[in-house]
UniProtKB/TrEMBL annotation:
Residues 11-41 form the SPOR domain. It comes from the Bacteria. It comes from Streptomyces nogalater. InterPro entries: SPOR-like_dom. This is SPOR domain-containing protein.
Amino acid sequence: MSEGTVSLPWIVIRQDDNGNRYRVGRYATRAEAQKTADSLGGQGREQLYWVERIGQNGDGAQN
């Protein structure tokens, strides 16, 4: 990683009632991402939110 480059390897994923998945945001730490997922998930909606680490190939797979 070069100077001035920010690493954001943690993502929050949302899945709606129809099974569609969306990337909500990227975060530097798992704790930061989990805090966002928890706050969004507690709004009484049917959507699911979870945290994943982005793999080296750029997908949501954990390493």
